[in-house]
Amino acid sequence: MFFVQLIRYIKGYVEFTVEGKFLERFLNLVSRKNIPIWNTSKKANTFHGCTLVRHYKKIRPIVRKTHVSVKITEKYGLPFVLYRYRNRLGLLLGLGILIMAISCSGLFVWKIEVTGNNTLAANDIIDTMNQLGLTKGKLKSSLDVTQLAEELCIHYDEISWAAVNLIGTVAYVEIEERVMPPEIVDENTPCNVVAKKGGQICYMEVYEGEKVRKVGDTVKKGDIIVSGILEGKKGQTYVKHARAKVIGEYIETKEIYIPMEQTQLVPIGGVSNYKYIPLGKYKLPLSFGKKEEGFTRKYRRPAALFGFTLPFEVIVEQTVPAREETFHLTEEKAKRYAIGQLEIFENQLAQNGEIIERKIRGKIEQGQYILSAQYTYQQEIGKEEEILIEN
């Protein structure tokens, strides 16, 4: 139904009223001439209906033959819009470009969807596809979907199979994730457990091998903690694959520097939007003028025309104009900024071990607030290292 309405709008149609005593004869002749009429209604000696402009011209001879009167009450469609704005060349040119853009939009990719991923993030895969050349606004005929799928598999060890299908304006990236085999430790390879980092041993659990160090000992990086070289009861020497869990404690330090004099952007009011349609590496601007300096955010939204969503996106770069201002931090505020950065560092530490104790102190020196932190930190410090045996 929408397609029929669109065709009528493009061709142009009129709403008309017919009055007279011979309406039935008029309607019979119109039907015999195969003139399409819709939205009809009849009341007494008055008939209402709609028909295309070119068909309305065929009604005129029938009107004269049946001695009725006809009058156009409304005009609809593109021909009348073009005629109304015939003296506004810019508007007509813009409308023509828009119609052309809509017609050509099916030649480009405007959406990328990922299916089949369980552990891999869809956004990460889309970012990778963008790096490989599959981007929104890319001409479909310029894409080698077989090569794209192969390069995606090469980029991710976790992907065993991939395919890229172009359907309409959507690029569907289908993947199948590889079932990764568990890491196998070669128990036949002789090795020692050595310290991968210096510190004091605070906990040790030996599964295979002979202890060289004990809880409370201090070790340096590379020191042997559990040996894989053992001596038998009869004095013979043999080697094993030593295994152990070794938790070490050591001191970790961190310093944060915050300048006491800061520069920041302050909004001065107003907002400006710069809009464009991405076409691969190029941009089709929908806004003109110089972009202002200030706070900027970028977002995408579907393009729409007369309430209908179009198959491509518009990127909007919204800027709030701002100016630079310099101000001086108080010691308390500088400390808060430094603590915030320190918390980020502590979160990273906590991913690999445990913070036992923290000592911090702050001072102002040479125009900076310096926050010094000292941590007592525990983590796994043992690692297996192969014993190289010379024949």
How does the helix and strand content classify structurally? alpha+beta
- What is the radius of gyration? 39 Å
Q: Termini separation (Å)?
A: 87 Å
Q: Beta-strand percentage?
A: over 45%
Shape: elongated
Q: Give the strand line-up of the largest sheet.
A: 11-9-15-22-21
Strands, count: 23
* Count of DSSP-assigned helices: 8
Report the helical percentage.
25-40%
Q: Tell me about the biggest sheet?
A: 5 strands, antiparallel
- Low-pLDDT segments: none
What does the average pLDDT come to?
Answer: 84
Protein model, in words:
- The chain starts with a helix and ends in a 5-residue tail after the last strand.
- It is built from eight helices and 23 strands.
- The strands form six sheets. A five-stranded antiparallel sheet has the order 11-9-15-22-21, covered by helices on one side. Strands 16, 17, 18, 19 and 20 form a five-stranded antiparallel sheet that branches.
- The longest helix has 20 residues, at 331-350.
- The protein is an alpha+beta fold.
- Helix 2 (23-32) crosses helix 3 (53-66).
